[in-house]
Amino acid sequence: MTQRVNPKVEPERVIELEEVVLEGMDISGHWNRMFEQRVIWDYDVDAMDRIIDLDGGESFGWCYQCAQCVAVCPVDHVGSYGPRKLVRWVQTGMDLFTSPELWLCTTCANCLRVCPKEVNLMEVMPAVRKEAVMAGHVPAELQDVFEKTARYGNPLGKNPKRRHAWTKGLEVEVPLISDLGRKVEVLWWVSDYPAYHPRGIDASRALARVLHRLGVDFAILGPEERHDGDSMLRAGEEGLFEMLAEHNIEVLNRYEFDVLLTTDPHAYNAFLHEYPKRGGTYNVVHYSRFLADRIDELGLTEEISQKITFHDPCYLGRHNGEYDAPRELISALPGAELVEMWRIRENGYCCGGGGGGMWLDGHAADHQRMRLSEKRVLEAVETGADTLCVVCPYEVSRFEDAVKSTNNDGRLQVLDIAELLAQAMGLPTD
Ligand code: SF4
Ligand code: SF4
User: Fold this and answer.
1) Whose CA is nearest to atom 7 of ligand 2?
2) Which CATH number is 110's domain given?
3) What is the reported pTM?
4) Residue 355 alpha carbon to ligand 2 centre in Å
5) Tens digit of pLDDT per residue, the chain (430 long)?
6) Is there a contact between 80 and 122 (Cβ–Cβ < 8 Å)?
7) Are strands 337-338 and 307-310 parallel, antiparallel or unpaired?
8) Rounded to the nearest 10 degrees, how much is the dihedral formed by the CA atoms of 123, 125, 130, 131?
9) CB of 63 closer than 6 A to ligand 1?
10) In terms of Cα–Cα distance, which of 189, 197, 203, 205 is closest to 158?
């Protein structure tokens, strides 16, 4: 460890003044003497250099410890965290590459929003995690998901051939684009949880019915679709991301469509920012925006007499600026009242699922007072809402678990906006 230590100022050498008055204020008290160097000079520059030398790690060295980030970091609200603290811990000897702290950041981007120095954890964390992944320092639960995704093309480890099994028994048709053999208006990128998780499937079936009622010419990829890889990239598995992106781009480039419709804000983010760098450029639209632009055609006639609160997904809102579409849809539900939580829109509280957090709940529970999803559910309950509305497939399962673990079962239900719309349109809800 290389130390930079400044010489101490000996107290005897300090000239004591009887009185020092500055702009009418007496500042001559003993409290105004600094008899030794503050320890901020006394730090491990090698540990910092290792991070800032990484591609993406540079901004970690720009921090000047103002602490604005700590107040908005969701992890600090359930523990002790934030870029300022991480920088200081590294300066005083923490090895971020092997520390459990490396895996607590959800890449929610709230710190970057307020940071005057643009310290960018969305780049720093993946860069350091990439090194940790290559060295094998990965929490076991996340490693398991990496392996499942590499093997099956989805983080749940489900049979890739059954990716469209959720469409069976639906009274409306959900065609595979490979069977149609023609251009479609909308290619729906369904994603993993909407294809395999029971509550994700509920939302997918609702959305299929809504699209049908709207008369949208749509199809899905089914078994040809694989995980979009965005969360794998944030979790440091760049090689896996590249493999998934290469496959998905090759599949997408086989077909003709006007709009790539995503249910998952993480897939939306990947298609907007990562796939174009690799030759995959599409007219990508999140389903909340697609439906909000067609509110007048939805035929919302059934009363939804509920108080509804809404959770902004970090990768739809803060990362990509879409705050209004879900609110427009909720506000259009007959009889419904939108009641907001106190942390919303730009300052929305993270559910804990981003940056690989979706698969690190055990790790988070070991290092935080409570999960972020539990904190958020308590905020939703505080509003007096009956329903917590979501527009991200990571969230239904996360929040439903959190409703149970915070003993709010029966007090708060968690519903995807597609489920609420289907109800208001008088569509079947099974
Ligand atoms: S807001 Fe930026 S500069 Fe200020 S402490 Fe946080 S990371 Fe450092
Ligand atoms: S990205 Fe979010 S979770 Fe990570 S340090 Fe910043 S505010 Fe905290």
Assistant:
1) 73
2) 1.10.1060
3) 0.90
4) 10
5) 444 444 444 545 445 556 667 777 766 665 555 555 555 566 778 889 999 999 999 999 999 999 999 999 999 999 999 999 999 999 888 999 999 999 999 999 999 999 999 999 999 999 999 999 999 999 999 999 999 999 999 999 999 999 999 999 999 999 999 999 999 999 999 999 999 999 999 999 999 999 999 999 999 999 999 999 999 999 999 999 999 999 999 999 999 999 999 999 999 999 999 999 999 999 999 999 999 999 999 999 999 999 999 999 999 999 999 999 999 999 999 999 999 999 999 999 999 999 999 999 999 999 999 999 999 999 999 999 999 999 999 999 999 999 999 999 999 999 999 999 999 999 998 8
6) no
7) parallel
8) 120
9) yes
10) 197
In the numeric block, which tokens belong to residue 386?
């009956």
What are the start-end ranges of the E strands in 209-274? 218-220, 257-262
Tell whether 430 is covered by a domain: no
The answer on 386 and 300 residing in a single domain is yes
**Cβ of 73 less than 6 Å from ligand 1:** no
From ligand 1's centre to the CA of 84, what distance in Å? Answer: 5
Q: Which of 88, 96, 107 has most ligand 2 atoms within 8 Å of CB, for mutation? A: 107
- Both 124 and 226 in one domain: the answer is no
Neighbours of 242 (CB within 10 A): 15
The response to whether residue 106 sits with its C-beta less than 6 Å from ligand 2 reads yes
Which amino acid residue places its CA nearest to atom 3 of ligand 2? 105
Half-sphere exposure at residue 32, Cβ-oriented, CA atoms within 13 angstroms = 13
Residue where a domain terminates, one of 106, 121, 137: 137
- Out of 258, 292, 326, a domain closes at 292
Residue 36 structure tokens:
């030794």
Using the atom order of ligand 2, give the atom closest to the CA of residue 121: 1
| 107 Cβ inside 6 Å of ligand 2 | yes
Residue 405 belongs to domain with CATH number: 3.40.50
What the block records as the tokens of 423 is 């109800």
